[in-house]
Amino acid sequence: MNRKTYWTILLNSLFLILYGYGLYLIYTACQYGNIMKRLPIIIVIGCMGLLWMIGWSVVYHIINSSFALQFQ
Fold this sequence. Notes:
Layout: H1 3-10, H2 13-32, H3 35-70
Helix pairs in contact: 2-3
């Protein structure tokens, strides 16, 4: 598996849509206030994004190490 595949899966369209929505929520909260109403959604979206990045990175490195062991 090459680096292009890693970045393609890491930055898939669903992740980018949720990231953009989270940024929009932060923007509206900064512009109009009322951050306490939107804070749980912002936290959930941020945690999902962080878990996606960490999870996919771990899976990618496990797959890469198993391929490296096969060809030794």
